[in-house]
Amino acid sequence: MALAISGTLFTISIVKYRLLELNPPPRENFREYVDAGVLIIDETGLILDYSSAGATLLGCTDVDLA
């Protein structure tokens, strides 16, 4: 009986608080979360966004990539 009640409460908490959903940080603010060199590139090879360390990896400055 206790197992059934705890399972029901666990299921309700997962659904109510969305515990299993992964929400990445917004792309606009990823520089605050990542210190590594990051380049966000689309399928055509266009650089959509980058971190300062990512620009350093390419040997460019932030102004060159803007």
Sequence of strands across the biggest β-sheet: 1-2
Q: Which secondary-structure class do the elements indicate? A: mainly alpha
Portion of residues in beta strands equals 5-15%
Report, as a whole number of angstroms, the end-to-end distance: 62 Å
On the 0 to 100 scale, the average pLDDT is: 79
Q: What is the general shape? A: rod-shaped
Helix content: 40-55%
Number of helices: 4
Task: Give a count of the beta strands, DSSP E runs of length 2 or more.
Answer: 2
Main sheet characteristics? 2 strands, antiparallel
Q: Which spans of ≥5 residues are poorly predicted at pLDDT below 50?
A: none
Output the radius of gyration: 21 Å
Give me the strand/helix succession. Answer: HHEEHH
Commentary on this structure:
This protein has about 70 residues and is mainly alpha-helical. The chain has a domain at about 25-65. The chain has four helices and two strands. It has a two-stranded antiparallel sheet. Strand 1 and strand 2 form a beta hairpin. The longest helix has 16 residues, at about 1-15. It is rod-shaped and about 65 Å long. The N and C termini lie far apart (about 60 Å).
